[in-house]
Recover the amino acids of this structure.
């Protein structure tokens, strides 16, 4: 079985899938397909299989498409051959909710970046950017607080989403000092970043 993955090296959602594939021992089954996905101009090669044109999108051997990152990560877990499940059965919905929190923070990151990096300067809306940053900050507070025990209990799908968030902040928001106000999250991320799955999937332009 080969998982043909429409790939973008900067996408934190694609990174989630790759981290999961490393963790579950199936990274050798992933074939990266080049893509030109964007928020304005869509890649029609992706649209053929995923009408939103977004990455990640995986094609199975029979061309059945899987998307988005949560669906693909769950599929990768289902075919995993090494390590523990990323969705422990006794905590499955808790882990899914933690993963959803990570993805929601990532959504706010992308919306903030698109507003300030892609929208013409005279059309930018500062209140929009502020609102997205507030979502990012409150999400990080939640990871540092009520979700920290679950985040650090093992390396699960929620942990992958959180690591992808923090890596993306370092990549696209280098001036944002999230570490000093979230010392526990920082210590966890520094340790998690030593995992092969994170070292092999560092985002780049």
């Amino acid at each position: 079985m080969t998982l043909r993955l429409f790939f973008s090296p900067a996408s934190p959602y694609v990174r989630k899938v790759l981290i999961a594939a490393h963790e579950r021992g199936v990274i050798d089954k992933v074939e990266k397909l080049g893509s030109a996905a964007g928020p304005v101009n869509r890649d029609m090669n992706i649209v053929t299989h995923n009408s939103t044109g977004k990455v990640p999108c995986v094609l199975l051997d029979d061309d059945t498409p899987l998307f988005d990152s949560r669906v693909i990560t769950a599929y990768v877990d289902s075919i995993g051959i090494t390590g523990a499940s990323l969705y422990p059965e006794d905590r499955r919905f808790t882990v899914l909710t933690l993963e959803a929190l990570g993805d929601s923070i990532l959504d706010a990151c992308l919306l903030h970046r698109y507003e300030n990096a892609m929208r013409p300067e005279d059309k930018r809306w500062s209140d929009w950017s502020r609102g997205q940053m507030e979502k990012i900050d409150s999400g990080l507070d939640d990871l540092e607080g009520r979700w920290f025990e679950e985040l650090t209990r093992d390396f699960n799908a929620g942990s992958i989403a959180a690591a992808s968030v923090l890596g993306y902040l370092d990549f696209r928001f280098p001036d944002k000092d999230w570490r000093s106000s979230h010392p526990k999250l920082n210590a966890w991320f520094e340790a998690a970043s030593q995992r092969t799955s994170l070292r092999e999937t560092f985002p780049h332009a």
Summary: The chain has two domains: 3-78, 89-195. Strands lie at 3-7, 30-34, 57-59, 65-66. The CA atoms of residues 57 and 67 lie 5 Å apart. The domain at 3-78 is CATH 3.40.30.10 (Glutaredoxin).
